[in-house]
Amino acid sequence: MSTVYLVTGANRGIGFGLVKLLAGRPDAFVYAAVRNPTKSAELVDLANSFKNIRVLKADVVDEKELKAAAQIIANESGHIDVIFANAGISEGFNKVAAAPLETYRKNFDVNTLGTVATFLATYKLLEKTKRPEGGVFFAVSTKLGSIGDGIPFIDAATYGASKAALNYIVKRI
């Protein structure tokens, strides 16, 4: 029986690295969610080389796309065992007063609310996991999102605040 994974933000960086790592595992099936598959050539090439990868169009700020992706997973696999909520942006490395409000909104929309939207669209599939220890929901964060132990010499008000909010939410999942 394969372990079913969902990786958001799978087209580059940490997300792409996870998909590549999991692709080589015969006991894994990976749903690789990206905002725009047509601009994700390297991921599509990888998926064409491995039968255990399926690329899905699912922008984490688009609830309809997330629900559609979850429906595809439900129809094909019936459950998800592990979710890596990796999609994120890092705009606005500024001091609090120097960052425009719109930059706060962008970071929170993707980094915080995008992860919440991913969870809301998929948690029922996680509950159907075949793993005896239950499903797992990981969210990629950063030390910049730590209130108690951040990185004091980097001003990342918008990014850090969005990741701090993410950390709070994930602790309650």
From TrEMBL:
GO terms for molecular function: oxidoreductase activity. Keywords: NADP, Oxidoreductase. SUPFAM superfamilies: NAD(P)-binding Rossmann-fold domains. It holds the Pfam family adh_short. GO terms for cellular component: cytoplasm. InterPro entries: Fungal_SecMetab_SDRs, NAD(P)-bd_dom_sf, SDR_fam. PANTHER family: NADB-LER2, SHORT-CHAIN DEHYDROGENASE/REDUCTASE. Belongs to the short-chain dehydrogenases/reductases (SDR) family. This is NAD(P)-binding protein.
